[in-house]
Amino acid sequence: xxxxxxxxxxxxxxxxxxxxxxxxxxxxxxxxxxxxxxxxxxxxxxxxxxxxxxxxxxxxxxxxxxxxxxxxxxxxxxxxxxxxxxxxxxxxxxxxxxxxxxxxxxxxxxxxxxxxxxxxxxxxxxxxxxxxxxxxxxxxxxxxxxxxxxxxxxxxxxxxxxxxxxxxxxxxxxxxxxxxxxxxxxxxxxxxxxxxxxxxxxxxxxxxxxxxxxxxxxxxxxxxxxxxxxxxxxxxxxxxxxxxxxxxxxxxxxxxxxxxxxxxxxxxxxxxxxxxxxxxxxxxxxxxxxxxxxxxxxxxxxxxxxxxxxxxxxxxxxxxxxxxxxxxxxxxxxxxxxxxxxxxxxxxxxxxxxxxxxxx
Length: 360
Ligand SMILES: Cc1cc2nc3c(=O)[nH]c(=O)nc-3n(C[C@H](O)[C@H](O)[C@H](O)COP(=O)(O)O)c2cc1C
Prior knowledge:
Blueprint: E1 8-10, E2 13-15, E3 19-21, H1 37-45, E4 52-58, H2 75-90, E5 95-100, H3 108-111, E6 116-117, E7 126-129, E8 132-135, E9 140-141, H4 144-163, E10 168-172, H5 178-183, H6 198-201, H7 203-216, E11 221-225, H8 239-253, E12 257-261, H9 278-284, E13 288-292, H10 297-306, E14 311-314, H11 316-320, H12 324-330
Parallel strand pairs: 3-14, 4-5, 5-10, 6-9, 10-11, 11-12, 12-13, 13-14
Antiparallel strand pairs: 1-2, 7-8
The chain binds flavin mononucleotide.
The site of flavin mononucleotide (FMN) has 22 residues, from strand 4 and helix 11.
């Protein structure tokens, strides 16, 4: 069985190790969602990861509700990403862009418009805005014309990601955002060809994948899903059947890797009692499976030993440990992240975490 330090191929991506950086929103872009210079420094510091999955990146103003998160719909954003991606490449790393439409979780205070979702539902709580947290607003149900436009937005963002130099893209299909809102029957109440039976609820996912692979090529396209348990008020009556079918669909489409955020009951990030779906997904899907949530090196290696996955993605450990790969190699202690600066602007708690070795 491979170790965390063995190389792995995921489609066209050749990773030197199996320690991936999970997507982490940090809010260091401008209000126009343009990446900034400190983002280049931050990502380059973490270039030893087998693969960096970027922070969630909006495909459109409509789809981006997080203050100071980056986007990939404008020329300025593409230009802003270029030095970030180049810095990662110069440091020897690889980076894919996580493409994000937040659906009903976009607050009009950020986007200036009513949110759109599979159906007219409301997020469960408070949304992040430039004026602090505000109550979620009821979304309008996407018309078929809206869906066609959103598919176009995904395609444009994928094209822009490649133009900016990214090694590929990851569709954000997890965590109760738009793709998840279409997948799950708690938020998809439609009675047209996008709603009802699982086969119909998979349609939006399939069409997004098709739109994106037409621009980014399938060998450079992965997806993130969060199959077990409700997340941000988004739930399904049979997540096991739904996500097993999703994995079979991704197999048919030839998507080379799926990253799964699969917490357990003891997880410190959105814990759930619902058992993992990844074992069933692995029986119908022959691509690479990346597992996430609450891993340290030993637990991650144990999953590789079991044959349960092909790589592990680490989220919070990468926040405070730019040299996480080296720390795992040496069995060194991890720095703890500074919570107040997770989403603050500026370099504090962002690019100033200590490494084991002082850089020359
Ligand atoms: C500060 C922070 C930002 C996050 N941003 C994203 C994101 O942009 N996209 C995403 O899919 N998940 C995001 N997550 C979830 C992480 O990718 C990961 O699933 C979670 O931290 C659990 O993994 P861990 O135990 O290795 O930290 C975020 C988590 C944290 C703590």
